[in-house]
Structure prediction request, 254 residues.
Amino acid sequence: MTDAVRALPPCARDIGDSRSAALESCNALLARKTPAERVAWALAHLPDRHVLSSSFGAQSAVSLHLLTRQQPGIPVVFIDTGYHFPETYSFVDELTERLSLNLQIYRNPMSPAWQEARYGQRWLQGVEGLDAYHHDNKVEPMQRALRELGAGTWFAGLRRDQSATRRNARFITWSDNYWKVHAIADWSDRDVHQYLREHELPYHPLWEQGYVSIGDMQTTRSLAEVTDLDETRFFGLKRECGLHDRELGDTDAA
Prediction:
């Protein structure tokens, strides 16, 4: 058992001997806390270095505000695929300035144009093509960010009611080399809206145009363009992109 694990509170100290029981105990503890209290608990008890990832999607201002209120300067990892909406890049700039974010940008070393020349438009090549594109442009850069930043704890803004693939998201998980915290896992859209309004925080600029799940331009659709919510991402072929697959069982998440 490492020193970092040994120093954890009782709910997680047996991680080396009974990982399942430790996680059940920790999740039961966190279920009784508010998101702000979960963040405070994780910052106090889970291993440094703490890192927050953000897609700067529709409701991302919530997690960014929650974390930076308690730990200003926490590294905020943004994965730049090169295919985000112009409004997303503007949103990144707006929130970075407004919340004084310590923004850490990671991307595929190969440019989007070079990738297209070599592989074609992989997002149009079915699930296999999407998976390959997501691995190279999202999963690998995120894993590299965690390694290079020396992350001991990774915060992310997953919520159970975002999609069927996230309905079992836990407050805390363990994934090989780091802890993962989903402080607002049990929040509804109403909870998010109230928090944004209370703290005068913005939605993504495309929210009012019916974009409820926002990723790359070529694989994101507004509600007006689809007949089913799942079709707003990846043409309805899949719902997630792979960033959080270990924490969501057999699914993966953008």
Summary: Residues 33-236 form a domain with the Rossmann fold fold (CATH 3.40.50.620). The longest strand covers residues 75-79. The mean pLDDT is 88. Residues 81 and 129 are 15 Å apart (CA to CA).
